[in-house]
Design a protein that fits this description.
The structure holds two protein chains of two kinds.
Chain A: H1 3-8, H2 12-34, H3 37-53, H4 64-83, H5 105-116, H6 120-131, H7 136-143, H8 147-167
Chain B: H1 3-17, H2 31-40, H3 50-65, H4 69-76
Classes of the chains: A mainly alpha, B mainly alpha.
Chain lengths: 175, 77
């Protein structure tokens, strides 16, 4: 029996093999969304827990990587929804001095705060599209919506940011 | 400056304020943590969510109270 068939049938060894094959990729995807290494580790485990829970729904002829990424994105989204307004964006993930020094520290903080206050569904796609520069079709597949809807959400996220920055007194165009 | 230019400017500001994640490699094997979670919260396929039980109870009550609805239910199955 193939690995995916054994996994779908509930074989723990097959699940472990898949876990070891995919944990790095799942973690790398999640950490780019939540931008916190500890939370990303927990969410990676949560993702595989869900994968194990819903194993019977997986078609062994299907694309395990795409299914896994969808579940990982959902887990990260659930976290963003719960953690909204409670977390800070950590600096260490991008490395010291990664942000552009031409943008004033105060303005950067205001942008980060405005970004944190975006509704989770907009923050998710805006992070992947605008910061991580993932292609729209990849985001669409991971989120489970059309590429057109991804584009729309990015557009709305930018609009919300513009309003929030304006209300904070950040003059766009006057860095 | 019109709103389209403003939007472009905001995208640029965002990219400059929040840099892409660079250190995305996993530093340790998470399998032991995974095993612990599986032991603490088993994922038995047979586990039925509470709302499914609630729906079944409501349906049962309706069938007992209104037996005439049984043919309608069978028709829609």
């Amino acid at each position: 029996m193939e690995l995916l068939e054994r996994f779908a049938a509930g074989d723990l060894e097959a699940f472990e093999a898949l876990f070891r094959q995919h944990q790095k990729e799942v973690y790398a995807w999640i950490v780019r969304i939540v931008r916190d290494t500890g939370i990303a580790e927990d969410l990676t485990v949560e993702t595989f827990w869900r994968i194990h829970k819903y194993r019977a729904r997986f078609d062994p002829a299907g694309n395990f990587r795409a299914w896994t990424r969808r579940i990982a994105t959902n887990a990260a989204f659930d976290h963003l929804r719960k953690a909204r307004r409670e977390t800070e964006l950590p600096e260490d993930l991008a490395g010291p001095g990664a942000a552009d020094p031409a943008v004033r520290r105060e303005t950067r903080e205001q942008i980060k705060q405005a970004f944190l206050h975006l509704p989770a569904k907009y923050r998710l796609v805006a992070t992947l599209a605008l910061i991580e520069e993932e292609p729209y079709n990849e985001i669409a597949e991971a989120v489970g919506i059309s590429a057109g809807l991804v584009k729309m959400r990015v557009y709305r996220a930018v609009r919300i940011l513009r309003k929030q920055l304006s209300s904070l007194g950040v003059e766009v165009g006057a860095r | 400056m019109n709103s389209e230019e403003n939007d472009k400017e905001i995208k640029e500001l965002l990219k400059r304020a929040i840099a892409p994640a660079k250190h995305t490699e996993l530093r340790r094997d998470l399998w032991p943590q995974m095993l612990r979670k599986l032991e603490e919260q088993p994922t038995a396929i047979g586990a039925v969510p509470w709302f499914d039980w609630a729906l079944a109870a409501i349906l049962g009550a309706v069938l007992v109270l209104f037996p005439s609805s049984i043919p309608a239910l069978l028709y829609h199955l």
